[in-house]
Design brief:
The chain is α+β, with helices and mostly antiparallel strands. The chain contains 2 helices and 7 strands; from the N terminus they run αβββαββββ. This is Plantacyanin.
């Protein structure tokens, strides 16, 4: 019988470890691949009359909205249903001001407005329902 080399006993362990690592990489990739990225307002960006932008689109929790806008003229505020209806930002609401904001959707309805006076009333607001 031929004598086995020193490393031959660990070959199955390397195969199992490699398979486990590959599985982890595939699972992480699948998680990322499931999320979609949407630019609010498409080419026009976050601007007036974007409130109908969601029509015909399907969103999932974990999808990302990208708000592109002139940061000297607008902002994005995550609000609740009352803030959306009344075009008002409640105290402590998360305000984005970069002009290129990325927001991950939570399950349920996510509400966003521009809090610059008159902008929300002119249609600069969206309600996005994520399944």
């Amino acid at each position: 019988m031929a004598q086995q080399g020193r490393g031959s006993g660990s070959a199955p362990s390397v195969v199992v470890l490699s398979a486990a690592l590959l599985l982890c990489v595939l699972l992480l990739h699948a998680q990322v691949a499931e999320s979609a990225v949407f630019t609010v307002g498409d080419r026009d960006g976050w601007t007036f009359n974007t409130n109908t932008w969601t029509n015909g689109k399907r969103f999932k929790a974990g999808d990302v909205l990208v708000f592109k806008y002139d940061s000297t003229a607008h902002n994005v505020v995550a609000v609740n249903a009352a803030g959306y209806k009344g075009c008002s930002a409640p105290r402590g609401a998360k305000t984005y001001k970069s002009g290129n904001d990325r927001v991950t959707l939570a399950r349920g309805t996510n509400y966003f407005i521009c809090s610059i006076p008159g902008h929300c009333q002119s249609g600069m607001k969206i309600a996005v329902t994520a399944a």
